[in-house]
Amino acid sequence: MKRVAVLGATGSIGASTLDVIARHPDRFRASVLSAHRNVAALAELCAAHRPELAVIADPALEGELARRLAAAGVRCAVASGHAALTAAASGTLCDTVVAAIVGAAGLDSTLAAARAGKRLLLANKESIVLAGPLLLQALHEGGGELIPVDSEHNAIFQCLPGGRPDLRGSGVRRLILTASGGPFRGRTRAELAAVTPDQACRHPKWSMGRKISVDSATLMNKGLEVIEAHHLFGAPADTIEVAVHPQSLVHSLVEYVDGSVLAQLGNPDMRTAIAHALAWPERVESGVAPLTLATCGALEFEAPDLDTFRCLALAYQALRAGGDAPAILNAANEVAVEAFLAGALPFLAIAEVVEGVLAELPPQAVVDVESLVARDGEARAAARRQLRRAC
Ligand code: NAD
Ligand code: MG
Which residues surround ligand 2, an ion (CB under 5 A)? Predict the structure, then answer.
């Protein structure tokens, strides 16, 4: 029986994870659930899944969570705050941690799980973009394992020999990450000038949280994934390509030196990657409908439009610049996306803010978490200054 901490349980990945767990009560148990501020949703999830511990990140809401659980007759421990989240990720109540918090807010709990040697199911891509080398070091020290949940990286993991997440000596020539292209594929810059947050969040293939939906619309999501692939698989930037594939059935591909190209296919539903990561190296049912080749139609692939969707080019630029440039990129993007979602920044200005912050803060070497968090703060402050200029 695997005891699973689902951090970010009230989100989109959290829901998919709990769905898969509930299908296999003999194998998996959701032992810890966490949320940011949505007490009502967290209490409901606790009533349905009966964890041993519920953590609400906002300390002001701990009392209300306890009251709601008591009223619903749910007996589980309650904790709150950032430190409680980190303690839960590394504590004895779980052996597996699903890192499904959105943004840099997930960094500490992800690192704590890695240091504690847990099986880390990584959805929170921002933490590996922000602190790739430190996360890998923490994993090494903890002796646990990381199974990627991001569908592209999970696909690549499945296409590598024996699921081995290390490219050296494996005959791999290229990693090809597929991208749906998002809701604005094929649009010109002029057509994107006035798009709204709701339009940006209306993804044609995937149902996701609002931040990653905007990242998909700008192609920053693919940029973050290029950096994620670089760290996860030890792949240089030049060996990672992006192919726009609007059907979202091929989740990514690995090309070998002999010309073989292996791909992982399936319907666009995160439960496949989550079930794979939970059960690996075994396989379990995920609830995802089988892919019917005869009716899925033509599969198209095209090059991304880097002039219109500049965030992808900026992510490559940050990866090549090295040091903490990816952390700067990520922080600036989080601030810009938040402003866009709040209606305070035009869509195309997201890339301008990120570019401006990258230019303002030349990369520095990554030393430790403390200095990285300080740089993340500097980048957020610089992004807010850029926002004032852009508005
Ligand atoms: P979401 O917005 O639906 O859910 C985010 C979760 O994080 C919620 O449970 C929320 O309560 C929690 N959270 C937010 N801010 C927090 C904070 N400051 N402290 C503690 N908890 C906080 O997001 P999502 O779509 O589920 O995405 C989660 C992560 O998974 C992101 O990093 C995203 O990039 C990644 N991811 C998502 C998908 C997808 O299909 N949704 C696919 C691949 C990767
Ligand atoms: Mg992805």
Answer: 150-152
Query: Separation of 133 CA from ligand 2 center, angstroms?
Result: 20
What is the pLDDT of the chain when averaged over all its residues?
A: 96
| 21-30: pLDDT as tens digits | 999 999 999 9
Atom of ligand 1 nearest to the CA of 101: 7
Q: In the chain, what percentage of residues exceed pLDDT 70? A: 99
Taking CA atoms only, the protein residue closest to ligand 1 atom 18 is: 105
Cβ atoms 125, 228 nearer than 8 A: yes
pTM, rounded to two decimals? 0.98
Please tell me the distance between residue 124's alpha carbon and the centre of ligand 1 in angstroms. Answer: 7
One-letter amino acid identity for 7?
A: L
| Closest by Cα among 86, 34, 88, 87 to 61 | 34
